[in-house]
């Protein structure tokens, strides 16, 4: 009986998160219909993530093979959804436990310390929980100590990163109503600092005319399909028709095959996003409801697009300059003996755009350009360096994208190495 | 009952926050409506009475037949209330 509970119920991450949703819904005294549908949807969300991973990993595997054959160096696509989905089979239970207990630590810190932030970006909580589960276990922890250390670190991340940005967020929004809770913080902080040093905030981006035609890239599905098609077809041309048609595509035309694989990758991301949306739909409101009661007078820390409307031009400029840095890094990384980080439109759009807004707040248009360029370098180099430290944990071809995952992962792995744990 | 669909690029973070704020605004107004959130690609395929979000996102849904409401400050309950009143 105990074995059934420990292994099959608590050891199955989808059931575990379902249980947490159930408890959250019961604590909020929801109607029985809401409790049943909310619990079932949370379990389903987790299973959808796994289904999306299966779709995406097939395409990713083919991309890696083509890239390796074409350039003799490993190409890696940083994509949080992909790596978290891929890691669920081995790290699902510890990810789910760290996520929920990390939220508890967040509420306690907001209640009893001066760091009054409640981190509401649920998908980033999930991603950071997964990063902690993976790095701590590579570092040598397991079982109860892994969950304990992971939850404390997650809770600390959930208040420290928003606190670091808050002075700049006040500058951008002109109020102290909310904070930014998004694990691209280090990139934004560097951008704001670069803007302060090299920019002139009087010459804001909002005085210049920027073409609005890039707006269609705000659509994640379009952005992923477009970049993946570009990179797949270019890599296919270098890998050669003969290799692809004999080794990978089973005879069908190499360009058509690459296009379909690119869209398959995008379809996988779309499925995973739908799963994540379902998974966090009950957990985040429950978290917020409990936090409002236990820790009043706290600030919500929100996803980065909440600051986009405050400087729409900086959003476009930030994306372009971050992506430019990503493209440049693609050539620099192999020269330094690191794996090639293929720049994605999505991470550059979200974190580049936000970095642009922060850079603009401290240094105007020059701040937005230089700051988001710096962000682009950071989100290219940090994942590449993290991969060196992570070693072979069995995730071929993908890794964590945003800057804070890289910083936290590297800190954990180096501290554990110093302590002689790994 | 009216259906309000809140939209953002990924359909994960900011649309979710706006959804919670819309629900809060509705409660304050004493109105009821079905509120949900999604990403831009999916929004093009769903039916709703009102589509709500940042201007550069929901602007792309404006085909002349949809009712579009744009927000400047996604956290401002007064802004949500004033912009939704005329549509409910």
From TrEMBL, chain B:
| Keyword DNA repair set for record | no
User: What GO molecular function terms would the record report?
Assistant: protein-N(PI)-phosphohistidine-sugar phosphotransferase activity
Provide the top EC class. transferase
Which keywords annotate this record?
Sugar transport, Transferase, Transport
Q: Where is the PTS EIIB type-2 domain?
A: 2-88
- Domain of life according to the entry: Bacteria
| EC numbers for this chain | 2.7.1.-
| GO BP field | phosphoenolpyruvate-dependent sugar phosphotransferase system
Q: Note whether Transferase occurs among the keywords.
A: yes
- State the protein's name: PTS sugar transporter subunit IIB
